[in-house]
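Researcher: I'd like a structural prediction for the single chain below. Treat it as a standalone chain; there are no partners to consider.
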Amino acid sequence: MQDETDMLVGGAKVMQKGQITIPKDFRDSLGIKTGDKLILIYDGEKIVLIKASDYAAKVLQGDASDADGSKMYSDEDVADILMQMRYGKFGGK
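Model: Treating it as a single chain, here is the predicted structure.
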């Protein structure tokens, strides 16, 4: 578990079109810049936000796995994800 002193806690309001603003201290800590693509992952309890480039690296390294340790994506899925991310059409699986 992460040490509480290393955690950032903040809030965001959902606007009319479903948009939120990520607080500046979060953007700075994560290195998020204007135009960066982000992946949102919902696991049934929480939403995890990760930079698309970091997520792609985890997928390629096999770090993105189901609870039983099996890979979530086939090689073809990874190739498809990378193509979608390259052309700005990635919506998750």
